[in-house]
Every structure is written in structure tokens, then in C-alpha cells.
Amino acid sequence: MANLVLAIDQGTTGTTVLVIDRDMNIRGRGYREFRQIFPKPGWVEHDPQDIWESVEITIAEALQNAGADPERVGAIGITNQRETTVIWNRDTGAPYHNAIVWQCRRTADKCRAMREAGLEDLYRERTGLVLDAYFSGTKVHWLLENVRGLRADAEAGRAAFGTIDSFLVWRLTGGEHVTDATNASRTLLYNVRTLAWDGDLTEPLGVPHKLLPAVRASSEVYGKTKGLTSLPDGIPVAGIAGDQQAALFGQACFEPGTAKCTYGTGSFVLLNTGAEFVASKRGMVTTIAWKLGDEVNYALEGSSFIAGAAVQWLRDGLGLIERSADVEDLAASVPDSGALCSSRRSRASGRRIGIPTRAACCGVSTAAPRRLTSRARRSKASRFRFTNWSARCRRISGVRSRRSKSTAAPARII
Fold this sequence. Notes:
Nucleotidyltransferase, domain 5, six-stranded mixed beta sheet, 2 domains, four-stranded antiparallel beta sheet, single chain
């Protein structure tokens, strides 16, 4: 009996797969990290084959831990690191180049040139985004300009572009080239008002429309599994959402005015604005929260690139800890940060956010509401994912909440 759902969370540093039953109980889990590639300072890449292998391994691991036969899987859902850009050959399925990761800054000069050419307002109005190397559009442009033979293949319809969700659906289904509206809205190429790829957006970046995937709703059947070693043919792939939009939905922020902030590799605030496209007056971006059927929900978003990535840096870069979880014992060993702050720039607002280092290492802001921090402490699995940011950071996004009763020092905007 096919009564289990396979949930694939393809993140920036690793892939998690959950096996979930009809009562929403987690029956099995798999996790696998993969290589981070840094060709130059500020450049970040992933090998798409590493990503795919991590998905295959964690699917098998999760099913084994659940004690479940693959035939019991009734549907597959995908959530993914957003903006990370892959282009592959439609005939062979082979990528033309490593994936360019959302953190990569190699296209900053291209973005600056587009702003100087007066294109910022056009992109802001139609995509809700700012011209920044964070988003996919300039990454696609860089690949087309720098990978030999790619532009000719793209113009001939032999190449396919996608964010990671699109790449995984292609591999899972044996060739369906689709994405959902949440991921399309992060590309700088998709008009979030008309819900279509926009020639006025693709033309300045030289992106052929033949390269682009079909854009679908966040919940529908995109295709069925075909030719996999770990799963039988015929399982529907039936849900896609970018990781931060999935978190907004998963935290039950269904009503306009509700918001979440989650910690993963980075930290992201999203505020549900309902069916209304709201342009921020404080430098936030506007994005599609989800599309269900013909109905679209929008959100305001602010992001900080470094959250859990700082913990990984302590482990892999400085060698101060052996396991990511060890950082909690270090943070708990001192009463406070001794006035030492970790400073990083919010990409959406351009402001620097200073957070006491002890709290930053924990992934818990000292000004976070007690209800959310206590929930994070109870659940090791969600400590970095579902801990609320500080009340000060919510002020940047315009989200209001009752002031925390915590007597600890609040985070400061610097």
C-alpha cells in the first residue's frame, strides 16, 4: 500500500530526506553533506552530480531507517536551496558546468553595470527583487558567456536551465523540465505580476526562452519517477517550493501579516502579504510565497547569508570544533559574549546586523521570543532551522511582535 510521502530537502551544504506517514509522523531520515567548491575568493560552486548522489543515498538511507519498501512511497515533495543555477544538456542530462551557488558573488560587476544602465527600477517593479548577484539571472548570463558552446546549444534548444528543484525533477522523472512559481520568482527573469517569463527581463541578460523551464503551481503532479535505482517507476513528484517559502508554509504562516525567521546556512525573514504584491519601503524584496491552483500568495523577505555557515566555518575553516553540535557546549560554557559581536550584512536591507557572538554561535538571538527559543531548544533537529531571529531584525522588515520579556542584551543594529 502506497501510504508514505518522501520529502527531499536539498540544502546548500547537505541533503535531508524524510519518510513521512499519513499522520505526519517521521518514520525515517537520511542526511548527507556534499562538497563545497571555492574556485576563487567570493565564488561558490557545487558539482550537480554530488548533489544528485547525495539525494540517491539519502533516499535509500531514509527508507532503510523507516523499514519501508520503496513501493510504499505514494508521492515525492521537493524543497531546495534557491537561486543556485544549473544548466544541463537535454540529450545527455550532463551539466555544462558546476552549479553556481546562491552565495556566489562572481556576477557583482554585471549587476553594478545593469544598475548604472538604469535597469534597477524595471527589475524591481516586475520581479520584486533587486539587481544582486544573489539571484539566478546574472548567473545564467555568466554561464552563457563563459562556457564554450553553451550559448549555441541554448539558442538551439539543446540546453536546459533550472534551479536545483528543476534539476532534481529532471533526474527523478527522466526528463520533465519544470519548476514552481516560488523558485521562478528568484531568477530575475520571471514577472511575478503576470506570472510569466518576461522578454524585457531576459533580453538584457541574453537568456533565450528555449532555455527556461515550464512554471507550475507549488502543489501538483509534475511527472512520475522513471529509471531510478532507488525507487520504482510511477511515483508522482507532486510538490515543489523553495526552502524559505516552504518554511513559511510549514510554520503555518497562512494569513497575511504572519511571519517566520529560520536559521539554516543563512537566516531569512519572510512575511506573508497575501494576494497583494507589496513593495517594501525599507529595502526588502518581494517574492512569491506559494502558488496553489490559480491562487498566488506573496511575501516580503530579508536575508542574511551567514547563520549556520558560521558554524560550518568554525568546524571546517578554523578547526575549533569537530562536529557542528559541539558549538552548543561552547556557547553554554560562558554567561555572555563579553561584548564581542558577529557582524554581517543583510542582503535585502543593506544594514549591518550585530548579534552577540554567544547567541550567534547557538543560532538563537538573545532577544528572540521565549516561546520560539524554548521550542528550538527542545528540538535538536530544528535548532538552526526554526529558531526566531531578534526583535530588532524584525523591525527592519516591518514585522511587529510583542517585546520579549528576556532580560538578556538585545541584538543591535549597527
